[in-house]
Please model this.
Amino acid sequence: VTRYVWVNGAIVESSAAAIMASDRGFTLGDGVFETLTVSGGCPVRLADHLRRLRASAAALSIPVPYPDGGLEQAVLDTARANDLAGAVVRVTLTRGPALGRGLVPADGAAPTLVVQAHPWRKPATGQPHGIRVALASVRRNETSPASRIKAIGGYLDALVARAEAGSAGYDDAILLNTTSHVACATTSNLCAVLRGAVLTPALECGVLDGVTRRAVREIADALGIQWTETWLTAADVLSADEVFLTNSVRTVVPVVSVGGSQIAGGEVGPITLALRREYLRVL
Amino acid sequence: VTRYVWVNGAIVESSAAAIMASDRGFTLGDGVFETLTVSGGCPVRLADHLRRLRASAAALSIPVPYPDGGLEQAVLDTARANDLAGAVVRVTLTRGPALGRGLVPADGAAPTLVVQAHPWRKPATGQPHGIRVALASVRRNETSPASRIKAIGGYLDALVARAEAGSAGYDDAILLNTTSHVACATTSNLCAVLRGAVLTPALECGVLDGVTRRAVREIADALGIQWTETWLTAADVLSADEVFLTNSVRTVVPVVSVGGSQIAGGEVGPITLALRREYLRVL
Model:
């Protein structure tokens, strides 16, 4: 745990970083967040993260109490207070302390904003370790707005799927949605490579619009690699030439097996490696 | 907002009732809760609520740091500290402050337990006001364990459905599940009455095992009213003779219209009234 946390405008010692017990983020998951990295002292794709934070907050009608410049300063101040040139920074925004009980928020609540930083290092550019993922029993609810925004109250299924996967010896889990189409991993977008093209679930599948996925798509476009957002079944993924995950903290992560079945003989494929190398190069 | 809150074993002023900003309940919705009433100084169906709290906590592998007697004392102490003979008491249990980042909790975290009380009066026994409910666009995810436990991270869909319903002028909303069967209202179980029998969605429909629903079922049994847990469609509910909701705080609430369509001419039916009267009598 790092020493300093930013809470509602002030840097405080972590041991003193407190929020009200009545905060609706704490009682109802009524809040949103972003997790981004700081690399060499600079926030990575900050504008994308702040745009998504505002979209998530708007979906729940939570006001964002700072302009982008103020949020950027909070991110930088928190990383610097902890002497971190490389950091994972989490920005959490909730509706704030409840003024009454029940689901319906009272008017006039003041939102709570917390910024936390942890040490982070850009992954090494060498041959990456491929991970083994489970196929979760929990389905992702693509009918829920929570599936497309980054909300505190939207992670319980991921928590359960991740715990189940860990107990069974897997590194992570992939979730299908309620129509049996692939959605994503617990905290990452999923991409499959088939005959040289990247296929990734469309947002309508119940997928967060990943900042790293967007960045990787730009790289694919630049490299002339075809990119399609579509509907994928588990069978499509199992028969893919390559599978990889994208996530701001973990960057581009090769998947070498799904539910115990090896992907393409358990080797990390060339398109995954090329996209990862380019992503890390510009990071 | 009441004056005193119970936090991790101590009664403190509400203004000083704080939890750590790193609490996983606040960051990830990684916690569970119960909302129960205190009537005439006594907790209502406390054993049922504590059993469900333990079941919810077990589903997320969160240890419960007190025996039932300690939890009961916390409920009573919180109500009494606020001079409330009639109270809504909420018990919130989270995994506690995170020892690192990410979905996977580190071993050795100390859970957070908070007990809050608000004034509550037993509803009057006269003719109740029937409410008008919307049919939510969000579907309840019956494949998620969150649909059957009372978790902080399980209320986002309900928050969204309730906000949408409120904007459209409704009092509450009913959610279907992903197979288009009726699940429940945003914070209540739903019952329909057809030809003198009560029909209510089975737990497999993605329904919380409601304490008040159980209590009302006992009353139905005693009155010789047939009670069936089953699968219901929206059409079944729209063509029912009566519809009512059950909830610890609101007790038994008649529904007089669903999605703008009147139920049985908008009148509150005799079985709803009988069950409500008996429930309030023993409360």
Summary: Chain A has a mean pLDDT of 96.
